[in-house]
């Protein structure tokens, strides 16, 4: 059964009908090639110094990385953070690392799962966001419940459905018992492992996962007219004009992180709650690649965890107006990080664009800027071309650095 049900979850994830009536195109990941570390020309040796330099110099199209004054970056912290990120011994039973939900070859998301699956197959109700450019996300999580990468990691470490440790202190004790970590903590901090120091190392490593210099950046900020295709240029005109996307995914004069870091009710969360409360009688389940069976929904639920309600920002503030509000995600590298939205139920960028074009579901508290757009199929093609032009070169090098040493599986 444990082998069976994540597959069911996957099948639900890729089914557009179940996703709320929006027509999807590709299945999750839809033939999207993996990020291939082998295509990075850089040497893996000495990567920490490169990662450090990258986190100190602004990347084309991006603002400088906001390093907290009490956690300046260093090559030692980056190397230690990388090792912690890949270490399955950070979970209760040594099975689960951060990198298993934020997979480097999948642009630091998990393309195969709409919503994450933690230790012993336990379901998490949300989609794992990419960690590329996470330095610019403030606050963190879809509901903004944490404010700093230095503290964020405690969440997954002790969440029963993620790494399931009974306490953070237990993890620290385990790490301090390992000589290899003694060396790395000494090199980074001249002190043994502690919760603070672990947070500082993980944060510094994640802040080095920065990537700008997309075709869009080279055109818009670099002035290279040939960098962007004509359809992508038309797509940007729509994005920043008639389609009104920059209201929440802004593009600044000098840089663009493509999120306002605020919370909005796009109607999507409400729409998903309607589907949760009124499930279909049957749902398609992919039993093998390309082989889909319609299965009685009650049978699916008998082997799946029930989907939890998700009230978004309200779960943090308990302010009624925050119900269904979610943090605007950055759109950088978005073409590499399907599936989309906080629960990953939209399999493709086209499905997201169709959601916006339809004006959302017309939910009671929906932001008025989400309204029918009346876009033509070629407008949607142009917008999609623009979103595709937000992919940075250099992602393969982030993956190569991440894989500079084998993960710790013992
Ligand atoms: C079981 C899968 C899983 C594991 C293991 C996991 N994460 Fe995540 N991560 C997620 C999901 C799902 C979210 C979004 C949760 C939410 O918003 O409520 C997330 C969110 C984040 C965010 C916030 C990103 C943003 O843009 O706001 C960061 C940072 C992060 N994870 C880092 C880590 C680190 C570091 C570890 C290891 C200590 C880790 N994660 C382990 C699934 C996982
Ligand atoms: C009112 C603010 C607002 C406007 C306007 C808006 N967005 Fe969004 N966008 C959001 C929020 C909030 C989310 C996350 C919703 C969720 O996860 O439930 C989002 C999610 C997305 C995603 C999914 C990203 C991911 O990683 O899951 C894409 C793509 C996107 N928007 C593109 C656009 C485009 C294109 C437009 C214009 C047609 C647009 N947005 C207009 C706020 C907005």
Automatic annotation (TrEMBL):
InterPro entries: Cyt_c-like_dom (IPR009056), Cyt_c-like_dom_sf (IPR036909), Cytochrome_c_Peroxidase/MauG (IPR051395), Di-haem_cyt_c_peroxidsae (IPR004852), MauG/Cytc_peroxidase (IPR026259). Its cofactor is heme. Heme c 1 binds at residues 98, 101-102. One of its GO terms (molecular function) is metal ion binding. Keywords: Heme, Iron, Metal-binding, Oxidoreductase, Periplasm, Signal. Binds 2 heme groups. Residues 230-391 form the Cytochrome c domain. Binds 2 heme groups per subunit. Transmembrane segments: none annotated. One of its GO terms (cellular component) is periplasmic space. This is Methylamine utilization protein MauG. The lineage of its organism: Bacteria, Pseudomonadati, Pseudomonadota, Alphaproteobacteria, Rhodobacterales.
